[in-house]
């Protein structure tokens, strides 16, 4: 027997937990939330939609919203093309974290 979660709404607490971890600036916390999300079996495309809605309502700058929305769109395209859900969500949360913390795009440690 197969169970499909098509168009299943992700609980608001899950979306809020992911956003909180992104705002904290702690990558380990964000990674943990992504792992929890994947373990629950929700569709990644649905969390992208709900994150987009939450970001639009958040009190952040237009530049931050644009950076996050761009990454959400890229991740959605990659998922449609068959990319790994975990890796795409991790990419989205890391970009979201960088935007929230006002880190420059393409930020890297070291020289």
Can you tell me the number of structural domains?
A: 1
The mean pLDDT is 89
* Main sheet properties: none
% residues in beta strands: under 5%
The Rg value, from CA coordinates, equals 14 Å
What's the oligomerization state?
single chain
Order of SSEs: HHHHH
User: Whole-Å distance between the termini?
Assistant: 52 Å
Q: What is the CATH-assigned architecture?
A: Up-down Bundle
By DSSP, the count of extended strands is: 0
Shape call: globular
Number of helices: 5
Which runs of at least 5 residues are low in confidence (pLDDT < 50)? 1-5
Description:
The chain is mainly alpha-helical and 111 residues long. It has a single domain (12-100), classed as Zinc Finger, Delta Prime, domain 3 (Up-down Bundle), CATH 1.20.272. It has five helices and no strands. The radius of gyration is 14 Å and the shape is globular. The N and C termini lie far apart (52 Å). 25% of the residues are buried. The model is unreliable at 1-5 (pLDDT under 50).
């Amino acid at each position: 027997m197969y169970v499909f979660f098509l168009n299943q709404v992700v609980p608001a607490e899950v979306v809020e937990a992911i956003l909180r971890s992104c705002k904290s600036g702690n990558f380990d916390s964000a990674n943990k939330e992504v792992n929890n999300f994947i373990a629950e079996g929700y569709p990644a495309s649905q969390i992208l939609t709900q994150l987009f809605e939450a970001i639009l309502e958040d009190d952040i700058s237009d530049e931050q919203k644009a950076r996050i929305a761009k990454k959400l769109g890229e991740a959605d395209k990659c998922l449609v093309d068959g990319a790994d859900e975990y890796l795409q969500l991790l990419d989205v949360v890391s970009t979201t974290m960088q935007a929230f913390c006002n880190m420059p795009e393409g930020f890297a440690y070291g020289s």
